[in-house]
């Protein structure tokens, strides 16, 4: 199974994932990453912090090649995306 690395882009800064995760394919990693984004957003809301909708997850393979970028706003339900 392939390894995926999820780096977090906050503005111009990229926080590197050095551990990675082994999943069946990119679709499975995308679904899992969206769950993780929702957890981050929920925690920010619970704490009364700003919600980091401008952040993104950048998924790369083991070689560091970018495979996909998922803006945090994509984790919101469609009706809330338009309001954000």
Automatic annotation (TrEMBL):
<dbReference type="InterPro" id="IPR054189">
    <property type="entry name" value="DUF6894"/>
</dbReference>
<dbReference type="Pfam" id="PF21834">
    <property type="entry name" value="DUF6894"/>
</dbReference>
<protein>
    <recommendedName>
        <fullName>DUF6894 domain-containing protein</fullName>
    </recommendedName>
</protein>
<feature type="domain" description="DUF6894">
    <location>
        <begin position="4"/>
        <end position="72"/>
    </location>
</feature>
């Amino acid at each position: 199974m392939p390894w995926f690395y999820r780096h977090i882009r906050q503005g111009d800064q990229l926080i590197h994932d050095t551990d990675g995760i082994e999943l069946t394919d990119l679709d499975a990693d995308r679904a899992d990453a969206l769950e993780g984004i929702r957890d981050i957003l929920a925690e920010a809301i619970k704490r009364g912090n700003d919600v980091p909708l401008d952040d993104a997850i950048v998924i790369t393979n083991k070689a560091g090649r970018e495979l996909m970028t998922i803006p945090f706003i994509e984790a919101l339900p469609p009706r809330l995306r338009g309001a954000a």
